Hints:
Elements: E1 7-9, H1 29-35, E2 44-46, H2 54-58, H3 65-77, H4 83-93, E3 100-104, E4 107-111, H5 121-135, E5 142-147, H6 151-160, E6 166-173, H7 179-186, E7 192-197, H8 201-212, E8 222-223, H9 230-233, H10 235-247, E9 254-257, H11 264-274, E10 279-283, H12 291-298, H13 323-329, E11 333-334, E12 340-342, H14 346-352, E13 353-354, H15 360-374, H16 380-396, E14 401-406, H17 414-421, H18 429-432, E15 442-444, H19 448-458
Parallel strand pairs: 4-14, 5-6, 5-8, 6-7, 7-15, 9-10, 9-14, 10-13
Antiparallel strand pairs: 1-2, 3-4, 11-12
Helix pairs in contact: 3-4, 3-10, 4-5, 5-6, 10-11, 15-16, 15-17
Amino acid sequence: MSEQLRYYSTNRHLDGVPGITPFRETVSFREALLMGQAPDEGLFMPEAIPVLPVDAFKSLKGMPYTEAAMLVAQAFLAGEIDEQTLRRIIDDAYNYEVPLENVFARKYIMRLDQGPTASFKDFAARMMARLMSALRDPGNRLNVLVATSGDTGSAVGEAFKGVEGIDVTILYPRGEVSGRQKRQLDTIGGNVRTVSVDGKFDDCQDLVKQAFSDPAFDDFNLTSANSINFGRILPQIVYYVWAWAQLSRDGEPAVFSVPSGNFGDALGCEYARRMGLPVEKLVMPTNENDEFPHFLETGVYEKVSPSRACLSNAMNVGHPSNLARFFDLYGGTLDRTGVVHRAPDLDEMRKQIYSVSISDRETKKTIKRIYDQYRVLLEPHGAVGWRGLEVYLELFGDGPLCISLETAHPAKFPEEIRELLGINPDLPQSMKDIDERSGEPVLLSNVYGAFRKYLQQNLRVTD
Ligand SMILES: *Cc1c(COP(=O)(O)O)cnc(C)c1O
């Protein structure tokens, strides 16, 4: 077997910070996947990024998405997981389309909205779930606990549905999820259970946190499957590689525009470039939470707190968790609270990345204009991405190949689309099916004792 990649913590240099003992060891991918976060609250990073010849990317032209996933995953997971298992995982995870829609000239929209929850988060969550199943201790079940206020929980729940050896418990606040979200969560079924908590989202998070630190669950293999797990970043490298291979002519580089909140999606593009993919520029438009464009412009990092509520609600993030990884890749250190301990190489960052804040007003205008002009349907997140690309091209001149990401299905925003365009977007099949499902949540108070008892009576420890 070839040599394994090792993973280090973004906080390894944090000397003299109260409450943090820098984690200076390295771990395998398997450990990073099952631990989620480093013991010093840092984020795991691969020690070396595998570089592939450009011909390896070119050879994916006309190939199914799963071949691109194999190429990327094998480069990172060599020596940790055998080829046959990996192929099974990937074939099972990616059983849906990835449309590349031409807007005009060499400008494309990549639609990452065809998975079970019609969000790009399906790509990462489905692969991570299957990797966890394959890499867990044989015979021991993993118990995933998630607190959600809506969409994240359903993406995780759907991703783990039917995955061997893993049970999922999702907590949501009874009064705070929409009817559609509640239905989606309650009816996943099988190995995924929902607990409707008489309380707020913060109560749900507290219950989960208490369970994680409760010695009574030491032997229960509790895990969080959270968004900062490197296992969720790895699958997000793949679609850049695949899209470039399909659309590039003679190896020309592409500009990618990625609507950004916690920066995990854009990080996939950053890694793809470092693997050798010809990326001319990574455009990272944000909504009105403008801490990152502000940082690139001024060199001063100030998180937006509290975060601003915008139409593109999955990007309402005032301090992106994956920004610490970007800092690290450019030689800087940023801690969890938003303090910069070492500045990154700003010149180099500006060379590779462009970022701009897009207001809600511009977002709406973009949805309308792009539909009127090209009959291309965008929802608020994808519109932020597209408008960011336009601003970049206006400033730096028209580029060759441009690919802007659409991260959710427009049917998830029916009111906005109806108001702006006067049409009712058709639901994707995966979401139509939800109306035919049934299921009931477990009802609990927000008192930890009740949750604890529920877990003790219902979680399984072995297969
Ligand atoms: C999560 C999310 C984003 C932002 O992705 P990050 O990786 O957090 O930057 C964008 N659009 C949609 C629809 C999302 O759900």
